[in-house]
Amino acid sequence: MVVLGVETSCDETGLAILEFDKAGYATIKGEVLASQVTLHEKYGGVVPELASREHMRSLPVLCEELFAQTGLGLKDIDGIGVTCGPGLKGCLLMGITFAQGLALTRKIPVFPVNHIEGHILSGELHEKALKPPYVTLVVSGGHTEIVLVEGLGNYTCLCRTRDDAAGEAFDKSANLLELQYPGGARLAARADSSGPSKRFTVPRVSREMEDFSFSGLKTAVSLLIKRNRDEIFSSPEVFAEVCWAIQDGIVDPLVKKTSREVLSRKLPLVVCGGVSANSALRKRLSEKCSPVFFPPLKHCVDNGAMIGYVAGRYLTEGVLPPKIDIFSRWPVETLRDFYWANHG
Ligand code: KG4
Ligand code: ZN
After folding, report:
1. What is the tally of structural domains in the chain?
2. Averaged pLDDT of the chain
3. For ligand 1, what atom is nearest to the CA of residue 10?
4. What is the pLDDT of residues 110-155, one digit of tens each?
């Protein structure tokens, strides 16, 4: 079975073609991605209307490119997986309309895919030996959650953020430090050039609670910068030290809560989402948990392959595509009913 994956939930347009064998193992035949970072950087964040328009422009161009790259065409596609949430409604609509348009001409199924499930299963896409149960940490610009995976579509959220996502905390702090958007990776690079800071700390708000919480960190960082402004912006060493303190303030609760869940269950760990590129997070989780899997960086960030993979897994299991809808919020624990409730 050959499946096309379409991802447009935020500011990346991603398409991929995957081929599945009967056991549900997938080979990626080709993939394309267009990032909108340069479009949004002057606004310091994603502008939803511009993002939707850009998806509409990019989708047909990328699809042609993908067909040329793989030597495959619409005639070879047996099903399409498209992200239906969570994400920006206007952006999701672009991907869905495109997928439905393609499917109409060939009467093939369009399978609604949950973006977070895409991130979660990117571990299984790359590690053939990885089988549930395992724990996933999904950390990106929009999501921060620890999920227990007990089977396809069988997810329990163990911990999620009450407010900002970890990537958002990185980006907002970077913005306060006047680093270019999206500043997460830039802030991390400065942090890595510093030794541990004794002078600066940011509060660990989530220490006292079950969930994560990162919105207070932004206020703390803003105050810290206000109080030490001259020193921070005149000394690269002091600047790096502040970056270290911020990174530690974000990474520390991620490592503590994730390792607690993993160690108490004695299960493997998969770390995915854009923030999983962070080297301090990788190092500390690898020291505490074993085995731990990080999908390749291109599949840690948003991409079409993970969406096609989810659709292909359900289609090879014989699950009929539920009705297409747009879900700006769509918790992964609701997928058990969504996919399996009517499955014989
Ligand atoms: O998964 P992703 O590409 O997009 C979504 O948000 O869905 O994640 C992007 C996020 C941004 O917040 C970016 O600043 C952050 O991942 N990020 C990093 C690093 N690389 C990317 N944060 C910390 N350290 C990094 N090295
Ligand atoms: Zn994502």
Report:
1. 2
2. 95
3. 7
4. 999 999 999 999 999 999 999 999 999 999 999 999 999 999 999 9
Regarding beta strands 144-151 and 79-85, do their DSSP bridges make them parallel or antiparallel, or are they unpaired? Answer: unpaired
Residue pLDDT, tens place only, 297-335: 999 999 999 999 999 999 999 999 999 999 989 999 999
| Residues 58, 178 within the same domain | no
Sorted by sequence, the CB contacts under 8 Å of residue 43 that are 6+ apart come out as none
Cis peptide before 295 (omega within 30 of 0): no
Which residue's CA lies nearest to atom 2 of ligand 1? 274
Same domain? For 122 and 161 the reply is no
Residues 53 and 143 in one domain: no
If asked whether residues 203 and 215 sit together in one domain, one would say yes
Q: What is the CATH number of the domain that holds 142?
A: 3.30.420.40
- Assess whether 289 and 188 both reside in one domain: yes
Ligand 2 centroid, distance to 12 Cα (angstroms): 9
Pocket of ligand 1 (CB under 6 A): 10, 140-142, 167, 170-171, 182, 184-185, 188, 273-275, 277-278, 301-302
Q: Whose CA is nearest to atom 19 of ligand 1?
A: 185
Residues 223 and 303 in one domain: no
CA of 303 from ligand 2 middle (Å) equals: 8
- Contact between 290 and 78 under an 8 Å Cβ cutoff? The reply is no
Ligand 1 atom with minimal separation from the 174 CA: 14
- Same structural domain for residues 73 and 147? no
Q: Which domain holds residue 274?
A: 134-295
Q: Give, for ligand 1, the residue of 140, 172, 176, 284 to mutate: max count of ligand atoms closer than 8 Å to Cβ.
A: 140
Rounded to an integer, what distance in angstroms lies between the CA atom of residue 269 and that of residue 199? 33
Q: The tokens of 279 are what?
A: 């080297």
Residue indicated by tokens 């067909």: 67
Q: Are 228 and 238 a contacting pair, CB within 8 Å?
A: yes
Q: How far is the CA of 327 from the centre of ligand 2 (A)?
A: 15
83-111 pLDDT, tens digit each: 999 999 999 999 999 999 999 989 999 99
